[in-house]
Amino acid sequence: MSLITERIEDNILYLELNGRIDSSNADKAEEMIKEIKAAHPDMPSVLDAENLEYLSSAGLRVVLRMRKDAADLKIINVNAEVYEILDMTGFTDMITVEKAFRRLSLDGCELIAKGANGAVYRYDPETIVKIYHNGASLEEIRLEKDLCRKVFIKGINTAIPYDVVKVGDYYGSVAELLSAKSIAKLLIANPDSLEENVAIYTDLLKKIHSTPVMPGEMPPIKATGVDWAEFLQPYLPAEQWEKLVAMMKEIPEPEFMIHGDYHANNVMIQDGEPLLIDMDTVAYGHPIFDFAAIYLGFVGYSECDPQVTMDFYGLPREITEKIWEKLMEKYFEDEAARMDAARKAQIIGYARMMRRTIRRNGLNTPDGQELIALCKQRLNELLPLVDQLYY
Q: H/E/C letters for each residue in 83-146?
């Protein structure tokens, strides 16, 4: 392998340091770095030390000269031995140095939950790992950790990430979760526990919706909902689209928490207490957005293909429909209020599902076309029945 190799990601030049850089090759390494940077003169650069085994004082001087030309220079993926050298010589006080991430394999690990942006696995009896399926995941991990901490401080049990790891090409966060089981897993093991577990599930949802949020503490959900509706302009009749967007914009924004992805894999039971996981969708706003997501998870996504709930929860659709019905009964004591909230949640849910399907190339696949047609049909049926999307 060459002493210095290069790669470009997101308009950033990564200079990969390989093997040992010492007095025998430091001059050559510096010359190679200059040549690579000269070929990309306007591009910010980062030193990637994932494959660097050793850095002598001669190599440190190369880094120091680079630092003089680029005040924002940083070194990433530094192993323990090289980090100790940088730390002892004071380089960690001058330059941003990021340690290498611990690498894990999740082969054979139990999948707890899976979503659009990642998946949660049980790594061992004490820990879970959430993998993020995109390249900008380090910032997402930081944001989710911050949200987890805020939610925990507000009195809602959650697994707070304490470490960042790499699994293959992806980043992941590690959190402690001692022998907890999801609501879905508990229902698979004991179908007769539906009433008991839905009661726990509903009580936690009520607690979330009654938890106040300070301005700026969490992102708002309403703007996202408006984006869902506005996206559909080319795909809905003008009158329907205008009504949908107008009603979405009129939804109030109470400063109370919502989870955003409150399904039966994201609520765990540990020592008899509910515990919330997968916190990257936590926001504030009207609870109707939570009910829209819940409806999709238990009913909407599986309307065209009942196998969806088996694949996602391990539960047949008749059970997930019953969970939805029991949840709404326990949350809304008044039947009229319950039916009204369900109808409005469905409208938001079908708008969201239609947008999601179109963005995932659904217009060009038979399954996607069937799902989009269903959304159009349901919106056509439901929109004339309401004048607002909140209760």
A: HHHHHHCCHHHHCEEEECCEECCCCCCEEEEECCCEEEEEEECCEEEEEECCCCHHHHHHHHHH
Q: Could you give the angle at which helices 335-359 and 238-250 cross, rounded to 10 degrees?
A: 120
Over the stretch 190-202, which tens digit does the pLDDT of each residue have? 999 999 999 999 9
- Its pTM stands at 0.79
Low-confidence ranges of the chain (pLDDT < 70): 1, 116, 135-136
Class in CATH terms, 110-176: alpha beta
State how beta strands 273-276 and 267-270 pair. Answer: antiparallel
Superfamily (CATH H level) for 181-385: Aminoglycoside phosphotransferase (APH), C-terminal lobe (3.90.1200.10)
Q: Which residues of the chain are in CATH 3.30.200.20 domains?
A: 110-176
8 A C-beta contact, residue 133 and residue 119: yes
Mean pLDDT of the chain: 93
4-100 fold: Transcription Regulator spoIIAA (3.30.750)
